[in-house]
Each structure stands twice: as structure tokens, then as C-alpha cells.
UniProtKB/TrEMBL annotation:
Binding sites annotated in the UniProt record for NAD(+): G17, A18, A19, G20, Q21, I22, A23, N111, Q118, V135, G136, N137
Protein name: Malate dehydrogenase
Organism (species): Corynebacterium variabile
Domain Lactate/malate dehydrogenase C-terminal: start-end pairs: 161-331
Lactate/malate dehydrogenase N-terminal domain segment(s): 12-156
Biological process terms in GO annotation: malate metabolic process; tricarboxylic acid cycle
An example Gene Ontology molecular-function term: L-malate dehydrogenase (NAD+) activity
Residues at the active site: H192 (proton acceptor)
UniProt entry keywords in alphabetical sequence: NAD, Oxidoreductase, Tricarboxylic acid cycle
Recorded superkingdom: Bacteria
Record InterPro entries: L-lactate/malate_DH (IPR001557), Lactate/malate_DH_C (IPR022383), Lactate/malate_DH_N (IPR001236), Lactate_DH/Glyco_Ohase_4_C (IPR015955), Malate_DH_AS (IPR001252), Malate_DH_type2 (IPR010945), NAD(P)-bd_dom_sf (IPR036291)
């Protein structure tokens, strides 16, 4: 995969959906230096639809009022060409969230149309080493649309399963009564949907001791009946309890994803990232799928050499099949 460019100061960062819930948590953490580094000045470009640019101006005013030492310029616009000009990184958040009882894939008809034009605008205006993170749902397929429409290089467009990854770590930490920081090698495979496969098989503690058996094993009832469905349906659980979809935890996962992409993953560990398959683990080439990944020299690499059991294979295949179906819908709707 192509290595995106190293980060130099200042960086230009585009956030779409800037007046929305996730952006309201995300922008302040970027401006505080939590993503690109405590010595890196950040110029923020905020993209919104025309009806929401005034609200985005309000967010820009609050960013200024916070007097972040690392915050450079803040530009609010409804023009994608302006928003992506010179972008070193782009968070594609702007999209409709689902309501109670809906599946994320049902958003494709409404949201899919946003990502083709944005992919083209990124290709035409962004820095050639731009790092793109798609958050708007259905995230895997929206990322595939942006990448295809813009003809963007395979190493530059990703989508977010880091929230699922973090949810999985948190569920295990609560179960074992250990801190999240002592858990390593969690994997979320597949689609950011209910078919996703949060996988404890390779999970280890700080000493490298495998933890799956402490959790009853990969085929144990806690894993199959509680953990996997809990993590896979956590987004819907949040919508049901909170009344709207996850926002601060989604922003936090986006911070984690971009931070690790730029600065690297800890030695011996990995995180979950949606990127175009290179054929690893039998996932068809080009399909935007979540894999265990390491960030090395500023580029994501899929962790190689994991042995998948028949049960793991079946779970991954089910999610891959759903991704292929979503891509067929994209073509039927003429979104690329
Ligand atoms: P929100 O409704 O609060 O904000 C979305 C914003 O996007 C709105 O201000 C809207 O005006 C703007 N927008 C819509 N179309 C746009 C366009 N073409 N260009 C620029 N801006 C545009 O929603 P939210 O809670 O911030 O969620 C945003 C998206 O993120 C949703 O699709 C949600 O499902 C998704 N999400 C994904 C994850 C994940 O883990 N991948 C987690 C949480 C939420
Ligand atoms: C999540 O996982 O919280 C988001 O994808 C929002 C949703 O619709 O579940």
C-alpha cells in the first residue's frame, strides 16, 4: 500500500458534518492536539450543507473561544472543493444517522450519494498523501464509494470499526475485572454492522498470556451468546437508551484511529481498521473490510498469518457476504 505522507506542521484537516453531534466532540479534541501531536498546528476546514453552515460557524466561534494554542485557521464552507483544498487528513462524518429499529445499511440510499462527490473533491483538491477516515454510515460501503468515485489510492481511504474494537475491549475488561490497557490483540472483522465479528481468539494480556480461555473460550456461551451480540448490537443499544446515536464515543474512536495511523500502533499490538482487502484471509480484493491492522511508518498493514478456525471463517464470510450485497446495492442505485 502507498504510504501517506508524514505529518508536518501545520496540518490541514477537513471535518464534514461539522455542525453534527460527532463533530461537536471530535473537533475540540483535534484542536487540542490529541490526534496530530502536541507540537503540530492544525488548520481546520469545516464542511456542512448550506442549511447548517450557520450552526457550523457557531462551532467555529467556540473553537476560537477555547484558545487552543495549536489551532490555526478555521474555515467554514458548504463547498467541498474549498473544504478539501490541501487536506492532509479528512474525517468524513457528515451523513444521516439511523433511528430506532433501523439497520445501518438502510442509510445507503440517503447517505451513499454524499460520498461519491466527496471522493472526487478529495482527489481533485487534497494533499496527495491525504488520510481519509469515513465515519458516516454505512461506513464500509461509503468508504468504498468515495475511493471508487475519486480513484483514490488503496492506502488512503479507511472506515471506522475502532468504536466496535473499543467496545469489545471494554466488555472484556469489565468481564475480567482488568484495565482496558492490559488487553491486546482484539480484532473486529468484517462490516460495521450487526454481522461484524468481534474476535477474542488472539487476545493476550501484558505478559503475552492468551485470555480466550479465561472468557470461557471462543465457543463458550459468554463469547457466543453475550459478548459477540452485545458488541455487534451496541450501536442500537446506545440509540435505544440515549435516544440518539453514539457521538462522544464515536469521536473518541475517530481520534484513536487517526492518531494511530499517523503515530503508529504499540509494538506487539494491533487495532481494527476498515480498508480495501488485498485478498488477505480470503476476503475478495478491493472489498472494504475490517481487519486486524498495524500502523507502520504511517501506513496500515493487515496483520498476516493468523489461523482461522472453521467457526471464525464462517463468521467472517457472513459479514463479507453482506458487504458484497451492499456493493451490489450501490451499483443498482448508480452511486458510482
Ligand atoms: P448528526 O445528524 O448529528 O450530524 C450529521 C451532520 O452531517 C449534520 O450536521 C448534517 O447537516 C451534516 N451533513 C449531511 N450531509 C452532509 C454533506 N453532504 N456534507 C457535509 N455535511 C453533511 O449525525 P452524527 O451523530 O454526527 O452522525 C454522523 C454519521 O456518523 C451518521 O451516519 C452515523 O450513523 C455515523 N456514525 C458512525 C459510527 C461508526 O462507528 N462508524 C459511529 C457513530 C455514528
Ligand atoms: C454506532 O455503532 O454507534 C454507530 O454506527 C451508530 C449506529 O447507527 O449504530
Amino acid at each position: 500500500m502507498q504510504s501517506p505522507a508524514p505529518v508536518t506542521s501545520p496540518v490541514t484537516v477537513t471535518v464534514t458534518g461539522a455542525a453534527g453531534q460527532i463533530a461537536y466532540a471530535l473537533l475540540f479534541r483535534i484542536a487540542a492536539g490529541e490526534v496530530f501531536g502536541r507540537d503540530t498546528v492544525v488548520n481546520l476546514n469545516l464542511l456542512e450543507i448550506p442549511a447548517a453552515t450557520t450552526a457550523a460557524e457557531g462551532v467555529a466561534m467556540e473553537l476560537q473561544d477555547a484558545a487552543f494554542p495549536l489551532l490555526g485557521t478555521v474555515t467554514v464552507t458548504d463547498d467541498a472543493a474549498v473544504a478539501f483544498t490541501g487536506a492532509d487528513a479528512a474525517f468524513l462524518v457528515g451523513a444521516k444517522p439511523r433511528g430506532k429499529g433501523a439497520e445501518r445499511s438502510e442509510l445507503l440510499a440517503d447517505n451513499g450519494g454524499v460520498f461519491g462527490p466527496q471522493g472526487k473533491a478529495i482527489a481533485a483538491n487534497a494533499h496527495s498523501g491525504v488520510r481519509v477516515l469515513v465515519v458516516g454510515n454505512p461506513a464500509n460501503t461509503n468508504a468504498a464509494i468515495a475511493a471508487a468515485a475519486g480513484g483514490l489510492p488503496a492506502g488512503s481511504v479507511t472506515a471506522m470499526t475502532r468504536l466496535d474494537h473499543n467496545r469489545a475491549l471494554s466488555q472484556v475488561a469489565q468481564r475480567l475485572g482488568t484495565p482496558v490497557a492490559g488487553l491486546h490483540r482484539m480484532t473486529v472483522w468484517g462490516n460495521h454492522s450487526t454481522t461484524q465479528f468481534p474476535d477474542i481468539t488472539e487476545l493476550v494480556d501484558d505478559t503475552g498470556r492468551p485470555l480466550a480461555e479465561d472468557l470461557g473460550g471462543p465457543e463458550g456461551t459468554w463469547n457466543t451468546d453475550e459478548f459477540i451480540p452485545r458488541v455487534a448490537k451496541r450501536g442500537a443499544e446506545i440509540i435505544s437508551v440515549r435516544g440518539s446515536s453514539s457521538a462522544a464515543s464515536a469521536a473518541s474512536a475517530a481520534v484513536d484511529h487517526m492518531h494511530d495511523w499517523v503515530h503508529g500502533t504499540p509494538e506487539g499490538d494491533w487495532v481494527s481498521v476498515v480498508l480495501p482487502s488485498d485478498g488477505s484471509y480470503g476476503v475478495p480484493e478491493g472489498l472494504m473490510c475490517s481487519f486486524p491492522c498495524r500502523s507502520v511508518d504511517g501506513a496500515w498493514q493487515i496483520v498476516q498469518g493468523l489461523e482461522l478456525s472453521e467457526v471464525q471463517r464462517t463468521r467472517l464470510d457472513a459479514s463479507v457476504e453482506e458487504l458484497a450485497d451492499e456493493w451490489s446495492t450501490v451499483q443498482e442505485l448508480g452511486l458510482v
